[in-house]
Amino acid sequence: VGCDRSESLVDICGEKNFQAFVCDALSVPIRSGSCDACISIAVIHHFSTAERRLAAIRELARLLRPGGTALIYVWAMEQEYKNQKSKYLKEKNGSKDKEEEISTGTAQRPLGDQMPDSSSQDSGCSDGLCNDWKGEGWDAKPVADSRLPVHTNRTSFHSQDLLVPWHLKGGTKKKGESVDTVLFSAGSKESQELNPVFHRYYHVFCEGELEAVCRTLDCVRVQKSYYDQGNWCVVLEKL
């Protein structure tokens, strides 16, 4: 059984005869201890505070029966690991990235005015930043600036908390409607209307961070922790 915050994605599952429902990952309407396994892929990195990320993992643990397991994937700060570039970096292509850089560079940040990444007080994964969660105060770092840098797609990360451009291709359309294919110059008003750019919040995880968060819960143990194509992953067992 699947669940998602997006009604449209749940509708797609229904069309494919999969069981799915709309819900909030912090409050899943399933009985405690009733699941043999839970999978959370690319969800928890969208929660904007350490407390909410921990709450999402705690909710997964609540659903599991004793001995049940959970698999969690989150986006990694380290897109180049052990001298190997992730698939995310490898898929970079010139023409697409130029368009994305143009959109990214002119994007209006919802939380403030334009700001160079270098001036953000949390930009870059400094040793101090990435080591904060290794001690008792992993979630105690105060927010230094309410403005977030906008990431350039297919490049390395320079901040743990950022906005990632998401390009809606062809604009919005309802079922049964057709969209005419019209070519516009990049950056034109018509192009922006047909291909709007949205910005999604991400907290990208440093090495060991996800595992450290999971270890704060007494009800689970970390069976396995590993890196997979630009993601940090853990397998948890319910005690």
Automatic annotation (TrEMBL):
Feature: compositional bias, Low complexity: 117-126
Any one Gene Ontology molecular-function term assigned to this protein's record: tRNA binding
An individual GO BP term: tRNA wobble uridine modification
GO terms for cellular component: cytoplasm; nucleus
Superkingdom as given in the UniProt entry: Eukaryota
Gene3D superfamilies, per the entry: Vaccinia Virus protein VP39
Region described as Disordered: 88-126
Record keywords, A-Z: Methyltransferase, Transferase
Methyltransferase type domain segment(s): 1-72
Biased composition (Basic and acidic residues): 88-101
Protein name per its UniProtKB record: ALKB8 protein
Organism, as annotated: Nyctiprogne leucopyga
Source taxonomy: Eukaryota, Metazoa, Chordata, Craniata, Vertebrata
